[in-house]
Amino acid sequence: MLATISSFLVRQLKHWERILFLAFQNGHDVRGSLGFGADDFLVAIVGSRFSYSGMWIERALILKALAPLLQQFLSVNMHSRLKIGILTDNSSTAYETSIETIAFQVGYPKGIISHITDDEGMNNFLGIADLVIYGSFLEEQSFPTILMQAMSLGKLIVAPDLSMIKKYVDDRVNGYLFPKENVGMLTQALLQAVSNGKLSLFAQRVASIGKAHARNLLASESIEGYAVVLENVIKLPSEFASPRTFEEIPSGLKEQWQWNLQMNNSANTTSNLDEAFSSMAWEEAKKIEMANARRRVEEEELKDRSEQPHGTWEDVYRNVKKADRARNELHERDDRELERTGQPLCIYEPYFGEGTWPFLHQTSLYRGIGLTFRGRRPGFDDIDASSRLPLLTNAYYRDVLGEYGAFFALANRIDRVHKNAWIGFQSWRASARKAALSKKAETAILEAIQARRHGMPFTFGIAVSEALRRMYGVQDDWNSLPQMPSDGDAWAVMQNWVLPTRSFLEFVMFSRMFVDALDAEMYDEHHRSGLCYLSAYKDRHCYSRVLELLVNVWAYHSARRMIYVNPETGAMQEQHKLKSRRGQMWIKWFSYSMLKSMDEDLAEESDADPTNRRWLWPDTGEVFWQGVYERERNMRQQQKERRKQQSKDKIRRIKKRARQKTLGKYIKPLSEDMGGGANNTKTS
What is the CATH number of domain 1-216? Predict the structure, then answer.
């Protein structure tokens, strides 16, 4: 990545130097073609790429500060050799009219100030200018690119003392600075820099120092940024040397770009670098920078304007849980999740952080599993491994296990997240190395699974003995342990393989016990000093290299057929055929009954003696044995009996409840009594 940045800056600098070369070698022609004389003194006024309300006032102040220079450049016929070009992207008529009005009020003769808006014109004028003034007082988040370009061209720059500019420009060392609160100081700086109609010798020396300084202007910040990325975002496997921190990089390498190396590499790839890189690259880079700068400003403004919640953490947590429940009740599932439900296979891609996102697939056949909560992809149904296995919240074990932690997280109550008959894994490093499965290979695997042609692991593509010795409790003097042959066939690497889900759970059962034995053997020394005898240097991913090959040990000695799939063509070929393995496999040691018995023994030990000693195995997945099942069944029975008893007690209390006696009853009178008088009345 640093090489790419350096290569781009080399090309960029070459382009700017080519403009300067043309300006000096053919100065008369270039100036003449642009309508300027050979003796004219050209001043370029540049500024921020953003439009804001105070921009008009700043342009007026800069032009007023330049006015005293007019006297040095007036000829006998009152023709001024001073030419001022205002370089801006604002091509509106209103802006041009306002500039003309300001120039007239300040006292500039007509024809001195020109308004340049097109990119080619701005680049040409900047290439032949004698002096560049940065006329914007707006605080920027980064050093203005237009000033970097001017310094690389050897131009003397004069700029306000903004914080981002002062960070890289020293007053009267590699440029001139003036206080933004006192623009009058700009006039003094210009009168000192310009003498007898040209730059003074001191100003020329300052411009020369600025040109040399511009070659490595942002080198330290860029190298530090990429060093932080390599250290904290990109999780490298154990076969890679751990990158140095920024503090460990020699000062000669982190304070300047290695121009000699880049220029040599560039000379090997192209005979004429100047012809290979045109002004289009600069225009493209400028557009990208402007877009990024606008986006940052908009995000900051929106952040300030948006309503901020003022509730307690309990309220926030309650609202989030409520939204999750509503989502589950509505059964909201994206298209990839729906398509994945009917597939026989799901391939999981473990990844660390945002740096690995470009190497992940986005089709329904694949599903990401993030090993860190903060680095999960938004908008995807990726699995959060740390929430499924709390062990991965421990940074130490997350690093030493590497992508292997995803296996333990998935196997822990797998039926909640994985519904497919087959399960596969593919490392993001396979995509980075262009070794991932092609569409042909994906189709070939799916067809083989549906046709049941193989039914065993597909692979695409030591310290083990000590761990196995401790895992199986073998005596130290027994050297006959499971060995792996060197028969010339292929093995699975980079955790790229496919298994039936049931076989995967059996493999994880074996892996948990192996990792526990490996951790008991190596934890103390590695945790204390960082040294790992599996590597030649300090390695925080100590176990990952051995664990990367463990699936081969298990598949070989458990008598699984091993099918190699060409990741490009999808062609399949069986490796380490069963006939050639006879007499070499330790099937009894790797059988399901043996592993299940060992797993239950460990679970019973953990359940019976929940000691506080450091023991990794209980933290890598479920702890279950027959006693746990019986205890849970008894607890459910007891709860059932308790509820029955509570119901009986409630009914008994209701029956025994004291009732108040009736005070009296209201008797409704008969209708004859109520209307007797009316019925006895005679009519005549």
Answer: 3.40.50.2000
